[in-house]
Design a protein that fits this description.
There is one protein chain. With 94 residues, the protein is an alpha+beta fold. It has one domain. It contains four helices and three strands; from the N terminus they run E-E-E-H-H-H-H. Strands 1-2-3 form a three-stranded antiparallel sheet, covered by helices on one side. Strand 2 and strand 3 form a beta hairpin. Helix 3 packs across helix 4. 20% of the residues are buried. The mean pLDDT is 97.
């Protein structure tokens, strides 16, 4: 799998859209208007989000849930740094 791009989602309530090739895959993630760790930089809210969502989401595969957890609620407040860590974690070329 190869990373192609990350951009604003064209969906009505979507925040981001990521595109991969080889195989072709597009995933929309995040909620438009939602505030995440990259926005508010509040570590307590980050910890609470991760605890709340860990019980029902599969973060072991490339999907909207893992993208939100790693990229929007990741270890840093930089979407770029979090995205690179995500791609490396899943062995995705970029």
């Amino acid at each position: 799998m190869k990373f192609e791009n990350l951009r604003i989602s064209p969906r009505e309530n979507g925040r981001f859209m990521i595109t991969f090739s080889n195989p072709k895959k597009t995933i929309h993630f995040g909620q438009l208007g939602g505030s995440t760790y990259i926005d508010h930089k509040n570590i307590v809210k980050r910890e609470n989000y991760l605890k709340r969502h860990a019980v029902r989401e599969d973060w072991n595969h490339v999907n909207a849930g893992s993208l939100s957890a790693f990229v929007l609620w990741g270890p840093t407040t930089s979407i770029t740094k979090n995205l690179v860590k995500y791609l490396e974690h899943f062995g995705i070329d970029y």
